[in-house]
Amino acid sequence: MLSRLSNSNRLTVVLLLAVVLLVGCSRASGDDSPVVASVYDHELHLSDLEGLVPAGMTAEDSMLVVQNYIDQWIRQTVILAKAEKNVSDDFSHELQEYKNNLLAYAYERQIVDQLIDTAVTDRQIEDYYEEHKADFLLKNSIVKAVYVTVPVKSPVVAKIKKIVLRGNFGESDVLELEETASRYGFNGYYDASAWMPFVTLQTVIPVTAYNEQLFLRQHRTITLSDDSLFYAARILDYKVTDEMSPIELQRDNIRAIIINHRKIEILSKLRSDLLKEAEEGGHVKRKH
Fold first, then answer.
1. Up-side HSE of residue 102: CA atoms within 13 Å toward CB?
2. Which H or E run contains 260?
3. pTM of the model
4. pLDDT tens-digit series, residues 218-276
5. Which residues contact 33 (CB under 8 A, 6 or more apart)?
6. Of residues 97, 54, 48, 52, the one with CA closest to residue 77
7. From 98's CA, which of 75, 89, 194, 195 has a CA 20 to 30 Å away?
């Protein structure tokens, strides 16, 4: 039947068959399954498309996925066919080396997964932090801050300004600031314990600081306005470039470093033990 159809209609029928197979139950097919596309002496069979389409996808979307795959296969195979005829280099050595590397990597990863201890205590993190202080210097200034922006003509502006400018600003003031702004439906940021890059605060509160260290030392409160908005921020803490990054910002990073060091130790011992075993068993011979 397929042989009596035009190439375009034949492809459509094949794609429809592909969709039925791909969205249904997969079945093993032999090489005698219909040819979906061919380039020179390379053929793409319907069986090659099994498992391509996720379950639950509509027939229309499935057709699109299959067609895109076929188009990509054709483009890639055209280049491959020309390369096979015109490139004389022998890649057998590179392919074998690549296979060897993959095999060795898979084995080492298997051993590491079996032996690695991923539990890292707070004490271990703190000790590493103290012993490697030079590795945790800030590259940019950071701040702990709360802020809010409201329409400049809002009646709540005066109260928000009063809260932010309080001398002894604490948790209760943060809560009052949030409640006051929320009551009028205005947004802000109220996590007083979180560090953020100073430049992030500047994207919300339009202040210019040519000397960040001097600015942060002199400005614990920021209140300003433009034609449409009133901006208010309270800077609770800050650290400038080249100061130590707070440990709370580095915990996940240090945990990953410690675990990676353990992986390196496991691999080093594995390679050493395997070499020793091979040498003691007489399986390593060196010709001098």
1. 6
2. helix 247-280
3. 0.69
4. 999 999 999 999 999 999 999 999 999 999 999 999 999 999 999 999 999 999 999 99
5. 45, 46, 47
6. 48
7. 75
